Amino acid sequence: MAKADGRPARDSVWLEGKERRGGRGGQPSGLDRDRITSVSVRLLDTEGLEKFSMRRLAGELDVTAMSLYWYVDTKDDLLELALDAAFGELPLPDLQDADADWREQLRALAAEYRALLARHSWLSPLAGRYLNIGPNSLAFSRVVQRVVRRAGLPAHGVTGAISAVFQFVYGFGTIEGHFFARIADTGLSADEFHRQAMELVSEAPGSAEVFRESEDLMAARGGDTVAEMLDRDFAFALDLLIAGIEAMVARG
After folding, report:
1. Contact criterion met (CB below 8 Å) for 198 and 146
2. Candidate from 27-31, 63-67, 74-78, 124-128 with smallest mean pLDDT
3. Angle formed by the axes of helices 135-149 and 102-119, nearest 10°
4. Where would I find the beta strands (DSSP E) of the chain?
5. 2 phi and psi, to 5 degrees?
6. Which helix (H) or strand (E) holds 214?
7. Residues 6 or more apart from 165 whose CB is under 8 A from it?
8. Alpha-carbon Rg of the chain, whole angstroms?
9. pTM of the entire structure?
10. 252 close to 175: Cβ distance less than 8 angstroms
């Protein structure tokens, strides 16, 4: 079965021994997969996914584009490596701690995943494009599964609970990442950008009425900065989801 872009579903840098590529005679000195991947992550952060290319990466590394193919077969392979490297930034809880509360561990995992998505705005489209079977991605998935299992849900409900929490986090973090990417080139702070946007929305004929209807909700939301507002929304939404898991456990 092939994906929409024509790549077979099994085609991955982590399959068929591709992860062992490199180390052959004749490759350029000073290069290795870790360095190439690290620079790729940095370029993706600074220039975005659309501008990323093997030629641009080669220029940053001061080598020819063909030199990179000693280490990866395709640009897709390199993006998979960058994706998994980003997942390697996630701190994972100690599952051997018998006194740990699964709720707090789940909150910590969700918060770290949100921060990762906001920090790397290119990550969310790649997470939806590839199989996510690199070692760091698998380690994160395994920990999430084990933490949610400890909640006491029946086995048939565990994957649904994981989806409820982490698809919410994926959406929240993706939108947050887009927001910060949008203001990156404006010269404004997040608070200044938000203030200007709200002023425009409150005066525009098509949105002013809706804005007025929600003024009480925005006031009750609290928070003096964009960061505080986002944190409050995220924490409350996550509490709702955890309460839902607890309610389903209580129902037996």
Report:
1. no
2. 27-31
3. 150
4. none
5. -105, 150
6. none
7. 106, 110, 148, 238, 241, 242
8. 22
9. 0.88
10. no
2 - beta bridge partners? 8
Measured in degrees and rounded to the nearest 5, phi and psi for residue 8 equal: -60, 150
What average pLDDT is seen over the chain? Answer: 90
Per DSSP, the residues of 3-70 read: -TTS-BTT--TTSTTGGG----TTPPTT--HHHHHHHHHHHHHHH-TTT--HHHHHHHHTS-GGGGGG
> What's the pLDDT tens digit per position in 97-107?
988 999 999 99
Range 142-153 burial, b when 16+ CB lie within 10 A, else e = ebbeebbeebeb
Nearest 10 degrees: Cα torsion 18, 24, 29, 33: 10
Contact 7, 76 (CB under 8 A): yes
Q: Which residues pair with 8 in a beta bridge?
A: 2
- Residues 6 or more apart whose CB falls under 8 angstroms from that of 35 comprise 61
Per-residue pLDDT tens over the stretch 8-38: 555 899 986 654 455 454 555 579 999 999 9
Please state the separation of Cα 82 from the chain's center in Å.
12
Burial of 85 (0-12, 13-18, 19+ CB in 10 A): middle
How many Cβ atoms are within 10 Å of 2's Cβ, its own excluded? 10
